[in-house]
Each structure stands twice: as C-alpha cells, then as structure tokens.
Design goal:
The chain has 521 residues and is α/β, with parallel strands linked by helices. Helix content is 62%, strand content 9%. It has a 5-stranded mixed sheet with strand order 7-6-8-5-9. A 3-stranded antiparallel sheet has the order 3-10-4. Strands 1-2 form a two-stranded parallel ribbon.
Length: 521
C-alpha cells in the first residue's frame, strides 16, 4: 500500500485526530497565556519573586516530557487532563520570560511621562506597559504555541487522542505510511500556528515601531485582520462542530481501554464493537493507553471500566508473585486477589495464550543450531539482546530467564515496540523478546525458541472489569465468554499479522472478524 492509498483509506480518522490535536493545543496554549502573562507581570513588579518563578519554570522545562507525563498520571489519571497540564507547564517559560523582558526593557522615560500626566499604576500597566510590550509577549506566545503542537503528540500515550496516535501506532507496526500520516499534518499545523500568531504579533506592534509609509501599514493591517478573522472563525467552527453531541449521554455508557500494542488495540475494538452491536450500552474507546501499570491504574481509578489483561502479567507485575507455570493456580490467584484487593472482577480466560518467547533470525538459528532457550544459553555471552522496557524490568522478563537458565547476555539494548524487530532484521541485535501471538514474528519470519524449562508463566487473555460496572451491565460476561472461545493462538497471530504486515487498521480487522464469525450482523 502506498502513502496516497493509505491517506485515501484513512482520511476520516486523520481529520478526526487533527481536530483533536487542534483543540488540545488551543486549550493548552490558552491556559498557559492566562497563567504565564500574569506571572510575568508579577515578577516585573515584585523583584523578589523573579528568581523563584523563573527557576521553577526552567526546572519544569528541563524535565523530560515523558517523565513529566508519567508524574501526571498517578495524580490526574489518563485522558486529556494530564496531557493538557503537562503541555501547559512546558509552555509557561517562554511566556513568563518574554512578558517580564518586554515590560522590564521599556524606556523608563516613557513610564515616567505616563505617571507625570496623572495615570494610576494600573492605568500605566494597561495603557502603556502592556501595549508597548505586546510584540515581545507575542513572540513568547508564538514559541510556546509551536512547541505545544509537537509536545501534544504525547497525548496519544494516555488515550487523549491527537496526531501522535498515528505516529506511535506506525512506529509499533513498522508502518511508514501511518507515521507520515501523523507527522505531516502535525508539521503543517505547527507552521500554520506560527503564521497565524505571526499575524497577531504584527497587529499588536505599534505603527510607530514599524518602517514604511503609514497608509501602506494601515492597508497591510486591514489584510492581516481579515486573515486573522478568518482563522478565528475556522477555529471557533472546529470547537463548535466537535462539541456537538458531546454532552451527557442517556443510558448506560462504559469506557473500554487497552494497552499500546497491536493485539491490545484489536482486542479493545473487538470488545467495543461486540458490546455496542449486541447491547444498548454506549462505548467510549480509550485505546492504546500505555503499559500494564497505566491501564490497571486507569481501571482502579474509574477512568476506564474494562480492559483485557494477561494472567501472567497480573500475577507477577500487579500481585508481585514470582513467575510459575501452573495455569490454573495463576488464574485462580489473580481472580481471588483482584476481587479482594482492587474490587475488580476477573472474567473467564480466553482461549489464546500470549506468553513471552525469545526469537532469533532464521540465519542465526541455523548457524548456531538454536531450537530452545537452553541452546541459546551456550552462546548468549557473545550475543546482543534487544528487549522492550517492560520485559527488561520484570521478574518474568530478561533477568528472570537469565537466572533460570544460568546465562548472561553479552550486551543488552532496550528498544521498545517494533523497532527491535527492525534492529534484529538489520543485524544490530541477535535476540529479541516477543509475544507468542505477535504478527511481526510471521512478518519477519523469525525462529521462536522453545522455553524447555517452562520458565515463562501462562499469559492467557482475560477481561478485567470494575465490580460496579458488572452490576450495571450484567450481560458483559456472557458476551465476552462467547468472544473468548473463538480467539485461539492461531486466530490471534492471523489478526495481528493483518495489522502488522497487511497494514489494515485494528478497527477493520476487528469488525471483519466479528462479521465473519457471525457475532454481529
């Protein structure tokens, strides 16, 4: 599929995500102006507050964006609120600093003259200082706005939407068309924002500070005002259009979440489509939220009502038990303790077991005679691993299997998502972690190594639902059990492959499967 074919097939989604991106950015920059300009004025008048305010703004700017977002999640949950708060904090420094600089650098004689004609301090500020400092202030707003467009791509990590969804989804599935479909509109949006705020900057610049004939300046300003008016109308139309129908919905509504990889997005869409088609329940899709801790935290806080977890992940990562291979014990323990500790219901396991596997290229397997993890242990010291952040930091991950089989990798790289497959294909790493039902295994034709010591625990998919949601929607267990009976290992490999290699969307793959199996009409 070429780029333009992808755009033709996916333009409704791209437009929707672009509108979300515009709204999130506009809200963030607007709040940053409301906070930053008064702070800039404050430190211009109260010199003792200068250093503390600017130091705090500088420290916030120095924090990596993903780390700041990580701090927001436990406090504010997932969705638009933490994303907006993070971008607002990042946008403050240029606005505060330029407001302060613009006011501080005004000609003292001008200020003295204003006071000499009897203006009050408030009048001096509003009628002299702010108007004269506006060009400098707007330059700060311009920098903050363009930066905010780029920063807002991280909103996709926590289900807030925006163009980042396309970028990160494309990276995970090695889909360059999807990456470009998110990156190009984001770039155009940043340039458009820069142009519009540049017009505002010129409009607020006093004519006496500009060069050229006064009449020409007035004509130019008329054109600029017209262009700015059109932009304002378009922005207002975007907010009005996307706000219609977003009020409180009548009847039952649940939010369904998912982690941020292909299989989870497919599962999220399968569950959401099935629930909407077979019941009167309305579904909010909060897909591609992040890792286990993000989704579990969202479920416990009520930001989502349901998502598909894996039994081994819940047992080791959430309940902190050492990994075991007893499927029944793992499931029963998770079901019991999730109810007692988190007030969450664990429903019947689905048929597929998406356990961890280690994978190597066919060439490497043939060269060293690799068929099992024990075979790998003989030469692991000479090899480089490329594993995800989660696998690198879990007891049932890299350190655990090294201890169980008695080996140490020669070199360890942490590469999240599908780029680790690309690194393996390019010979930059020798072994990667994968999921047993990962479509990229089929795409890259990799050799999976048998876990001959049965180290990895079972990872059967299982729906986890809030108890309160289950009381309000008692038909959910029956529907999810019906779906789970059809989802075998082979089925999930094929569904994942359709997204990862054939570049179909998770929405289409899920919808087609439900229709083919007669679950929806």
């Amino acid at each position: 599929m070429n780029f333009w074919t992808y755009i033709g097939d996916s333009y409704p989604q791209i437009i929707t995500l672009l509108i979300e991106h515009v709204k999130l950015t506009a809200i963030s920059v607007g709040l940053a102006i409301l906070i930053g300009v008064p702070l800039g004025i404050l430190i211009a008048y109260a010199s003792k507050a200068n250093k503390p305010v600017l130091t705090a703004a500088n420290i916030i700017q120095a924090i990596p964006s993903m780390a700041l977002l990580g701090f927001m999640i436990p406090l504010l949950g997932i969705g638009t609120v933490p994303a907006i708060v993070a971008v607002v904090l990042y946008s403050l420094l240029p606005i505060i600093k330029n407001t302060y600089t613009g006011i501080e650098n005004l000609n003292p004689q001008t200020i003295e003259a204003a006071r000499g004609i009897g203006l009050t301090p408030l009048q001096v500020l509003t009628k002299v200082q702010i108007p004269l400092a506006l060009p400098v202030i707007m330059a700060g707003v311009r920098i903050a706005s363009v930066t905010a467009v780029g920063l807002m791509t991280m909103a996709a990590f926590i289900g807030a939407g925006g163009l980042g969804y396309l970028v990160f989804s494309g990276i995970r599935t090695v889909n360059n068309n999807q990456i470009l479909a998110g990156a190009i509109p984001a770039c155009v949006l940043a340039l458009t924002v820069d142009f519009i705020i540049g017009l505002v900057e010129k409009l607020v610049t006093p004519i006496s500070l500009q060069k050229g004939d006064r009449v020409e300046k007035i004509k130019k300003r008329t054109v600029q005002k017209a262009g700015l008016g059109v932009a304002a109308v378009l922005l207002a139309a975007v907010f009005l259009f996307t706000s219609i129908g977003t009020g409180n919905q009548e009847g039952r509504t649940i939010s369904i979440g998912s982690k941020d990889f292909t299989e989870q997005e497919i599962l999220g869409n399968l569950v959401a489509d099935l629930v909407e088609a077979r019941t009167d329940i309305k579904v909010n899709r909060r897909l591609s939220l992040g890792g286990t801790q993000v989704c579990a935290g969202a479920l416990k806080s009520g930001d989502i009502d349901l998502y598909i977890e894996y039994s081994g992940t819940a047992y080791t990562d959430m309940l902190k038990y050492p990994p075991i291979s007893d499927m029944e014990k793992v499931y029963e323990t998770v079901k019991k303790e999730y109810g007692e500790r988190f007030d969450l219901a664990v429903l019947k396991q689905m048929q597929f077991n998406n356990t961890y596997v280690l994978a190597v290229s066919q060439e490497t397997a043939k060269k060293y005679g690799l068929g099992t993890v024990s075979d790998l242990s003989r030469i692991a010291g000479t090899m480089t691993s490329g594993t995800t952040f989660e696998f690198s930091n879990r007891e049932d991950g890299l350190s655990g299997i090294e201890n169980a089989y008695g080996f140490k990798m020669g070199n360890k790289l942490t590469i999240d998502g599908s780029p680790r497959y690309t690194a393996l294909d390019g010979g930059e790493v020798d072994v990667v972690d994968a999921f047993a039902t990962d479509g990229l295994l089929k795409k890259f034709q990799l050799k999976t190594l048998t876990d001959d010591k049965h180290f990895f625990p079972p990872y059967f998919a299982m729906p986890v639902v809030r108890e309160q949601t289950l009381k309000e929607c008692p038909e959910l267990p029956g529907l999810l059990e019906e779906l789970g009976e059809l989802l075998t290992d082979e089925v999930m490999v094929e569904l994942n492959y359709k997204v990862d290699e054939l570049q179909q969307t998770p929405e289409k793959v899920a919808g087609d499967f439900l229709k083919e199996r007669g679950l929806v009409s």
